[in-house]
Predict the structure.
Amino acid sequence: MSTVAHTMMTAARSADSGLASPGELDRYPYAEAPAVDRVGIPAWDGGDPELGRVGRRAAGSRGRGLHGQLVQQLGQMIVSGDLGADRPLVPEEIGQRFEVSRTVVRESLRVLEAKGLVSARPNVGTRVRPVSDWNLLDPDIIEWRAFGPQRDDQRRELSELRWTIEPLAARLAAGHGREDVQQRLADMVEIMGHAMAQGDALTFSRADSEFHSLLIQVAGNRMLEHLSGIVSAALQVSGGPVTGCDRPNETSLGHHGRICDALAAGDGAAAEAAMRQLLTVHPEVERVVPAPREH
């Protein structure tokens, strides 16, 4: 096993046990593994007030403190529809509800405003914005939609978007011939192989995410590069239409390897074909590839 593979697998196991290896978790970010059945976010009014206390809700906090937890909580409530469009958000009420300071509330609302979920205007206050104003390409919103009432639409849309982005990125990346990048991609395939053999889903997922993000980043198209975070978010969303990346097996690993071989040979057509095979939905799913929808 290469040094890179050993280091990454050690870091993943450390993260899984809560013992972070220095610097590694920042280098290989991984979102909290989604539970199959998540407890629904409580409505703003009514219900047990204990459920609304940010300090006692660890799920989805990602270790970002009260500010990050409040962003997560409010974001999920908005995306799920518990806080509907044009709903006024009163900072004092939020602070009391979630037992946090005005500073935490103010910072959290600014983050949500940047994501297009809320708007703040003089003499009007802060209100929830309609879905049409949301930044649907924001990784957090992707995750929140994936675990809310819009989960099926979100997963389908992500699948279709990946089919648009990644085959093209693979074709373009084949023309860049950077040995360091090709070696890094090969390292990720090696890591995925060792992780699969050991049943280490966490390490496999990290290596898979880096493989796809790196491939997009070296395609030489800055607009595509800007979308690499979307692919990472998509890889962390389970369920729905299943692609070759969602269920680690020898076939999936082989497609990753063929992409690497095509890039090394500078064969854009082969790289694109291998990526399309990788993204093909498994046979047990009705649709083999995303198809046009009737409106």
Notes: Residues 162 and 231 are 7 Å apart (CA to CA). The beta strands are 88-89, 118-121, 125-128.
